[in-house]
Specification:
about 120 residues; mainly alpha; Arc Repressor Mutant, subunit A; 2 domains; three-stranded antiparallel β-sheet; 3 strands; about 40% helix
Length: about 120
């Protein structure tokens, strides 16, 4: 594995963060994830970012504001920090367990299908 290997947290999609910013914002976010140190910090200048992506300066400023408003990054010139995705924006897409109306206990898939076959609740 490369020494500077990093990955994109799947909660970016699962928790809906990805829907809150433009494609320019997402490209900036990906760049910051890629170049940040272990604390999520990056000192890339506006000029360097614009050259790498490529973006015009006003577009970069807008993308940066989007990421700040979405609470994905903190920025105080010249320092970016990628923030944790600990707070989900949307309810989890994980299904809740099916519970028996009679006992209130979680039911297995087998029991759910058996109940459906019997036509009971």
């Amino acid at each position: 594995m490369p020494r500077q290997f990093s990955w994109v947290d799947h909660r970016l999609v699962r928790d809906g963060h990805i829907t809150r910013v433009s494609s320019e914002g997402l490209s900036l976010y990906l760049l910051l994830l890629t170049v940040a140190d272990a604390d999520g910090l990056s000192y890339y200048s506006d000029e360097a970012v614009c050259k790498l992506l490529p973006l015009e300066l006003p577009t970069l400023s807008h993308a940066r504001r989007e990421l700040q408003n979405a609470e994905l990054i903190a920025y105080k010139r010249p320092l970016y920090q990628v923030l944790s995705l600990d707070q989900p924006l949307m309810p989890s897409l994980s299904p809740l367990p099916v519970r028996s109306e009679r006992t209130g206990e979680a039911m297995s898939v087998r029991d759910v299908f058996a109940q459906i076959a019997r036509g009971t609740k």
